Amino acid sequence: MAVRNMKKTLKWKKFELLFHVSTTPSKPQPQSSHSHHLILSSSSFSSVPNLTNTYLKSKPQSSPTLTSEEISKINLLLPRLCLFNHLPTAIQLTTTALTLPNPPPDPKSLSLSILIHSLTLQPDLKLPMSLLTRLSRKHPPHPYLTPISTMLIASYLKKDRPKDALKVYKWMLRPGSPCTCMVDKSAYGILVGGLCARGLVLEGLMVLRDMLRVRLLPGEGLRRKVVRSLLREARVREAKALDGLLPCAGDLNKVLDFLDHHIGNWSN
Question: Residue 62: what pLDDT?
Fold first, then answer.
């Protein structure tokens, strides 16, 4: 118990130090690899080892949590970090706040949207995957992992990067992923509709099949999007058949057999 309390205290103190360093005024930096290391430089955190003994001797905090004032300060700081392209620091600040023993109860209480927007402007998925990986290390899976993954998918689709959205989805379903059983109806619906709307109809049907396999039925709006996308591909017979099968919740196996057959033929 004493060791556990010390770990909690160290984590809380680390957050306090990170928050203090992050709020130190800094000048805007160009978007380069050098700027990514500006705030996270070794000099910024060189005091951490020297403070370890002090933290171990301090009285453990049983349930460290963020106050509303601290959450407000983080929400003011995150846009600034993103604007100055200090995304690694923004990721570290966010994940440290979210992985405290008592994190903010609502993901909407943090300015995650500006962070997600900035991450999906990057040319690759290195930083978005860094965010997800940090959250996935928590056991059991962090409750914000699925909402944040869904936000990344939606943001990539909005920026007309459907293949990157699909990569995030595949990361969620990879073997051993903590998200495997956590992909919700919202994530499926956003991805199926987004892929079909952007001409990746085959990929959209594959995700729709995954959705049906976990017994999640598409709503009326999503069903119409899928059918229209098939019609745009001049697959009239398949569109009519699927339009007739999807409302039937009683026999999902028939719908899955239909999708398996036509996905196989399409792929060939």
Answer: 52
